[in-house]
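Hey, I was hoping to borrow your eyes for a little while. No rush at all, and the record is pasted right below:
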Amino acid sequence: MSARLDPSVATVFDRHPANDSDDEDALIAELEQEEDENDALASHREKRLEQLHAEFSRAKMMKTSSHGSHQEIKDEKQLMDITTSTKLCVVHFSHREFHRCAVMDEKLRVLAEKHFDTRFVSINVDNAPFLVVKLGIKVLPCVIAFKDGVSVDRIVGFEGVGYKPDSITASELEARLLSSGVVVRAKMTETDDRRRAKVVDRDEEGGLDDDWD
């Protein structure tokens, strides 16, 4: 885990997902613009530039180990290896026929691009019969957060995420994961999230959550 970032560095870096199209020079220019607009930030400029470069390089390195994206895993043994070998990991147990699982995947994909310190993965429950029984998964979507291979939080359906029982936003999901300690800091903005709440069609879904047996 990185040392605590200067707030101005974190603000600039977090506006951009950690992907190969990022331009470090553009990030530096953005940081310098922030400093030009705030004389108080002008001091210690060199330290901030060093932090920005280090964070940019670290994000690129993490991406080589599948961080920075939401990846579907096909084999439950591979999934178990990931959760035990990764410090911070979020696993979505899903089913492709359930609309709510698709909504959850969409929000996790947004967060994965921002939170490169955390590994985001999903697995179809049909491919994880052992884990479904071992973990007692009965309702989908089911998101389990792991720290150092230990489960620290479980989200069943959309329960405990946001204020509406039938919709969630990426910002609300981020807040829940932040409270569990599986993401390092809040990174979502209103522009990122756009508050695109999606109301579940009860006739299509048959209720708020999807029972799976």
The two ends are 38 Å apart (CA to CA). DSSP finds ten helices and seven strands in the chain. Strands lie at 70-72, 88-94, 119-124, 139-140, 142-147, 150-156, 210-211. Residues 7-63 form one domain.
